[in-house]
Amino acid sequence: MSALLELRDVHAGYGPFRSLFGVSFAIQPGSVTALLGSNGSGKTTVVRVVSGLIKPTSGAVVFQGQDVSGRRAYRIARLGITHAPEGRSVFASLTVEENLVLTFREQLGRKGVRPALDQAFTMFPRLGERRRQLAGSLSGGEQRMLSLARVLVASPKLLVTDELSLGLAPVVIDEVYRTLATIRDHGVALLIVEQHVRRAMTLADDVVVMAQGRVALSGPASEVSDLTETLLPAAQGEAVPDGEGRSAQR
Ligand SMILES: Nc1ncnc2c1ncn2[C@@H]1O[C@H](COP(=O)(O)OP(=O)(O)OP(=O)(O)O)[C@@H](O)[C@H]1O
Ligand SMILES: [Mg+2]
């Protein structure tokens, strides 16, 4: 199977500061890749390179066989790489349906609204049940579901999430992961940047572990999960972000 996305020996940084040193990995269509690693290891920089926000200084980003390195972010988005919005990013004082209609009308025009709504409610029946409820009164997990449903209208081939579960209570994270699984089941490949290693491993087909701007380990989740567990604490002292004070919620 040919890869959906491939990074080939990517070097990148911020001005004189170098952050990535020869990063290579591939994502297969419809598969889930967990991108793990300690704080500052380069995960977000990889995401920025993939989405075209940063141009690699050398190496290539290849999407569906096309070299897209250095293309503008909006052009890459148009090819089918979408970012999950951070936070809830819904209009709290509008209903679930109004939130969806706003996005769908803007992106698809008036005629596109009805089929897109049907699709969203088929994919996420819970949103259908709550279509007349104010988005602000949804649970945290349902709000994330709504914000993801709004992104999916662009029919992405690859959805990239960077710390989607940051700051969320464990039960909400479970729900976010169920939402991601639903999206994967609809054929969308996922690149998940995650500090919750075990959560990410429940969904991942493949794992890429970064350390100091390099790929320290990569492979099928089934083969590297033990290594990931041992490598991550060693690489970062603690496999948890600063915000892990929220573990107190457990
Ligand atoms: N805008 C920037 N300007 C300069 N250096 C940056 C910038 N963003 C990130 N860096 C540096 O690049 C390196 C990689 O950072 P990056 O944000 O990719 O790490 P990360 O793996 O996402 O970390 P975290 O888990 O903390 O989110 C770090 O040393 C960081 O300080
Ligand atoms: Mg980051």
Helices and strands in order:
Blueprint: E1 5-14, E2 17-27, E3 32-37, H1 43-50, E4 58-63, E5 66-67, H2 73-79, E6 81-83, H3 96-108, H4 113-123, H5 125-129, H6 140-151, E7 158-162, H7 170-185, E8 189-193, H8 197-203, E9 206-211, E10 214-220, H9 221-236
Magnesium ion binds next to helix 1.
How would you describe what is shown here?
With 250 residues, the chain is of the alpha/beta class. The protein has a domain at 5-84 and 160-249: Rossmann fold, CATH 3.40.50. Helix content is 38%, strand content 24%. It has helices at 43-50, 73-79, 96-108, 113-123, 125-129, 140-151, 170-185, 197-203, 221-236, and strands spanning 5-14, 17-27, 32-37, 58-63, 66-67, 81-83, 158-162, 189-193, 206-211, 214-220. Strand 9 (206-211) and strand 10 form a beta hairpin. Helix 6 (140-151) runs parallel beside helix 7. Residues 14, 17, 19, 37, 39-45 line the site of adenosine-5'-triphosphate.
